[in-house]
TrEMBL record:
Highest taxon of the lineage: Bacteria
Topology term for the membrane: Multi-pass membrane protein
Compartment(s) of residence: Cell membrane
Similarity comment: family membership: Belongs to the major facilitator superfamily. TCR/Tet family.
Keywords tagged on the record: Cell membrane, Membrane, Transmembrane, Transmembrane helix, Transport
Entry-linked InterPro entries: MFS, MFS_dom, MFS_trans_sf, MFS_Transporters, Sugar_transporter_CS, Tet-R_TetA/multi-R_MdtG-like
Name of the protein described by the UniProt record: MFS transporter
Length: 390
């Protein structure tokens, strides 16, 4: 953990505190149907609006990070999230809830492009995989605790969840504003500064499309997997909780130990290996029908997730010109937003057609993403070498 600047550790601490308070998103479906009495169809509409906001979030936040600065974007996004959380917690009308969820989708992850660009500004290229990996670990450790605490606090009423989430967002924003200097590089007059310039980078676009394919596979863990375990295998809902607990345990224990070791190897090869293991883990799901079997498949793809932890951020930072780091991170984040919106639709349709075939197709998609990453690996290495030149 040595050798990283103080400002990075402030970002690390703020990220951890923020994830400790992430209690609304995991329970939003339960809140809408139980606390607000919505039908499943109405709750689905609300969640769709959240997804639509998320699609806007990453490009807008990436642009703001480059235009106004990392500190302003990150603190502004956290403050807006805090206000929206409280407003949503007290809104009772359907139009009000829909509007609040749309805004929440825009602001809740607006910090990500700013955070990614901030790490690229603060940390040397050699240490970036390690730094991004540590942030990944902080997010997962905080979220694991939040899931347990949120389930317990929900018994006292959902309003407290909104307030806890809002307060931790404010703490994150204040920490960044008070303790992290602005790092936004100054753009030279001759340098481009729009998303058109990002989209002209064919290597970056290819990397984003590859990651989108991977996201379609990985995100089945939170949409199709619980349906397969309860609906197809006939297991209780608690079985999904047990299987997913393996995910948190493996990440919290294994990822810090392997972080520095993985940073020594070629990023594209490590990322491709991670894609292969994630694909293999989901393909293994086709052959299991018990809680231990599902837990084993989760363990396999979680090891793949650990391999991918800090690599994408380091690759994006290597591909991006310094003055466009926010926009590049925003485009990368868009692949996850699109995956979040489309993964449930893709997975459930495949599951309905054939449970066995569904997991094999998803496993194959993971292998396809790995092949794509290997194919662009030489170009990524060439660009990375250029960014390390004095």
């Amino acid at each position: 953990m040595g050798g990283l600047p103080r400002a990075f550790w402030v970002l690390f601490a703020g990220t951890f505190v923020n994830r400790l308070g992430t209690m609304v998103e995991p329970f939003i479906g339960v809140y809408l149907t139980q606390a607000r009495g919505m039908s499943l169809a109405a709750a689905g509409l609300v969640m769709t609006m959240f997804g639509a906001g998320s699609l806007l979030s990453q490009p807008v936040a990436g642009w703001a990070s480059d235009r106004f600065g990392r500190r302003v974007t990150l603190t502004g996004g956290m403050t807006a999230t805090a206000v929206t959380m409280v407003a949503l917690g007290y809104t009772t009308s359907l139009p009000g809830i829909v509007a609040a969820m749309l805004v929440l989708g825009v602001v809740v992850d607006a910090y990500r492009p700013a955070s990614q660009a901030l790490v690229a500004d603060l940390v040397s290229p050699q240490d970036r995989p390690r730094a991004y990996g540590l942030l990944f670990w902080a997010i997962n450790l905080g979220f694991s605790i939040a899931m347990v605490a949120g389930g317990w606090l929900a018994g006292s009423g959902f309003t407290v969840l909104f307030w806890v989430d809002a307060v931790t967002c404010l703490i994150f924003g204040i920490l960044v504003w008070r303790a992290i200097p602005e790092t936004r590089p100054v753009r030279a007059a001759q340098e481009g500064g729009s998303f058109t310039d990002v989209l002209r980078d064919r290597l970056m676009v290819a990397f984003v499309l590859i990651n989108f394919a991977y996201a379609l596979v990985y995100l089945q863990a939170y949409s199709t997997l619980p349906l397969a375990m309860t609906g197809v295998a006939g297991l209780p809902a608690s079985a999904y909780g047990v299987a997913m607990a393996v995910n948190g345990l493996v990440i919290v224990v294994v990822q810090p130990v392997t972080n520095s070791w993985l940073a020594r190897y070629d990023p594209s090869k490590v990322l491709a290996a991670g894609f292969v293991l994630v694909g293999a883990g989901f393909a293994l799901t086709a052959a299991v029908a018990s809680t231990p079997g599902y837990a084993l498949s989760v363990a396999v793809w979680t090891i793949g997730e650990v391999l991918t932890a800090g690599i994408p951020g380091a690759i994006v930072a290597a591909l991006a010109p310094a003055h466009l780091r926010g926009r590049y991170s925003g485009l990368y984040g868009l692949s996850w937003s699109a995956g979040t919106l489309l993964a449930p639709l893709t997975g459930t349709r495949l599951l309905e057609a054939s449970p066995t075939l569904a997991w094999l197709i998803l496993g194959g998609l993971g292998l396809l993403a790995a092949a794509g990453q290997i194919a662009i690996g030489r170009a990524v290495r060439r660009r990375t070498a250029l960014t390390r030149l004095p």
